[in-house]
Amino acid sequence: MSTTSDTMVRFRDVTKVFGTGSSAVAAVDGVTLDIEAGEIFGVIGYSGAGKSTLVRLINALEPVTSGSVVVDGDEVSALSERELRPVRASIGMIFQQFNLLSSRTVAGNVAYALKVAGWDKPRREARVAELLEFVGLSDKAGAYPSQLSGGQKQRVGIARALATSPKLLLADEATSALDPETTRDVLALLRRVNAELGVTIVVITHEMDVVRSTCHRVAVMEHGKVVEVGEVYDVFSSPQATATKKFVGTALRDRPGPEALERLRRRHPGRLVTVGVHEDGTSGASLTRLLREHGLDGSVVFGGISEIGERPFGSLTLELAGDDATISAFLTELATTTDVVDLGTAADPRDDPRVVAGASDESGEGDSATGAPPSGRVDEPDPRDAWQSERWPGTGSTGTSGLGRPGTQGTQPGDFGTEPGTFGGAR
Amino acid sequence: MNRDWSTLWPILLSSLGETLYMVSIALLAGGLGGLVLGLALYCTRKGNLLANTVVFNVLNVLVNIVRPIPFIIFLTMIYPVTLAVVGTTIGTEAFILPLSVMTAFGTSRIVEQNLVSIDPGVVEAARAMGASPWRIIRTVLIPEALAPLILGYTFIFVAVIDMSAMAGYIGGGGLGDFAIRYGYQRYNWAVTAVTVLVIIVIVQVVQFFGNWLARKVLRR
């Protein structure tokens, strides 16, 4: 029923309008987008941006107003409700509120998807056991959803969504109702689903951290439109749209916002420079080398480095001590290897064009709230970024183990543990 | 008094039998009809499974028209229908028809209200799995709302007992008729009291059973 192609989901000029006449709202407005087979694709946007509507156009829970949506060769936007049923059965979906049937046990919930797909009882039972093993909930088979924690519920949701071995999994704010640690576990499970089973995953989220740690490519949505799309690393390293800059700011918080910068300048009246650090630590190494070569002193006053798409990324803000000519020469040479933003001095301030007010300034607010000195230390707003000031300049490598992706280290061995080869046998 | 009761007991017993007969048939037929009508109201509502504004509005207005009619007036209003269907307008059988119809309309609202409390996300999840509307009604809507539905039907049972007291007006018999004729009209307060006591016992037993069943279903 499907043709083999590299594109799993193809949106062509898709519009979805809710309401009519003067109250009509275009939740999705002229979206053209390709989601490739085998990738984890993120769709990020603030609430009301249209991302949840967009994902519901993929399995046609919402019909399109115009345009076409093709999923794995099937033009879902042209199918009738009856024709859509088998297509929907071949697309898994998980939800923010899990949406488990409270009247059925864990095993019953997973089996339900198989029942709908017409599996007979012996095959259902074998498959349910296999799936619960995969998500690490074999011991909860007879429990009811109300007896489970949020993370366990979502794992049941994932097992249910994977029951019919779909090629595509839609995750609608799947971690938004979970605490940070459970979020990491669930995201690790999604990455495993992608890596071991080859399932294409579309992740809808408003948290850039989810995109940063999990997705390969990302589309940023605002007012129903896709304002930016690309590799997660590229989008992070050179965000174009205002919305994107805000999201990047909230995820990294590596660049001082206007208020934090003001406080920095009070403490560090000298020349402030923000240096991008990325690509396996090479620019971090060149930074230390260049400082040494130019005989300059640089002290880190702000910054953060974490991993994006398995590559280290972030920035450091330094206060440089030395005469202007040396600093200029140093900056010129540094600019050939990485992006450098000259913030000037307290007497002659300049702004960072990449910083959007209200985005990366949260950390600065946190400083004043806790009464901690606003600067003079490396800012560490998010423990998951795991940046530690003592590491720098140190070995010159920023891609050290402490900066690992959340969840990739297998926080709880055996939690989702199963042999990769044991899954997916009986299809 | 004692001589009186020896003749009254058998009449009370047969009246009890008539009441249970009327109420159980009405609950069965009207309860089922109400379930269908309630499901139709819920499913055709805007944004739901089988959203259909025309059908919903027609059903909604119909239910709103029928439900407020006092039962004793409704009883006489549908005489022509009763005559056509049952063949007579007096007696227990003739009373069961209007009782069932009214039960159905009353039940429909209760069913609809209990279904509204279901998380729409669960329905959406079932749709996302490719389930048909009919399958969703059978395997999602009813099981998910089962406990409140049981309590709703327990509530309806009491309402039907209440309505069945009016059977005497068309010669339908039952406990209500017994209390009026042998208690009220003969100035025998004790008979009325005993009849009320019997009704209270029935209601208590059914309520207890309903609560127990709902709890059992909700054990999850």
TrEMBL record, chain B:
<comment type="similarity">
    <text>Belongs to the binding-protein-dependent transport system permease family.</text>
</comment>
<keyword id="KW-0812">Transmembrane</keyword>
<dbReference type="InterPro" id="IPR051322">
    <property type="entry name" value="AA_ABC_Transporter_Permease"/>
</dbReference>
<keyword id="KW-1133">Transmembrane helix</keyword>
<feature type="domain" description="ABC transmembrane type-1">
    <location>
        <begin position="16"/>
        <end position="210"/>
    </location>
</feature>
<feature type="transmembrane region" description="Helical">
    <location>
        <begin position="72"/>
        <end position="99"/>
    </location>
</feature>
<keyword id="KW-0813">Transport</keyword>
<feature type="transmembrane region" description="Helical">
    <location>
        <begin position="145"/>
        <end position="170"/>
    </location>
</feature>
<keyword id="KW-1003">Cell membrane</keyword>
<dbReference type="Pfam" id="PF00528">
    <property type="entry name" value="BPD_transp_1"/>
</dbReference>
<feature type="transmembrane region" description="Helical">
    <location>
        <begin position="20"/>
        <end position="42"/>
    </location>
</feature>
<dbReference type="InterPro" id="IPR035906">
    <property type="entry name" value="MetI-like_sf"/>
</dbReference>
<feature type="transmembrane region" description="Helical">
    <location>
        <begin position="49"/>
        <end position="66"/>
    </location>
</feature>
<dbReference type="InterPro" id="IPR000515">
    <property type="entry name" value="MetI-like"/>
</dbReference>
<keyword id="KW-0472">Membrane</keyword>
<feature type="transmembrane region" description="Helical">
    <location>
        <begin position="190"/>
        <end position="214"/>
    </location>
</feature>
<protein>
    <submittedName>
        <fullName>ABC transporter permease</fullName>
    </submittedName>
</protein>
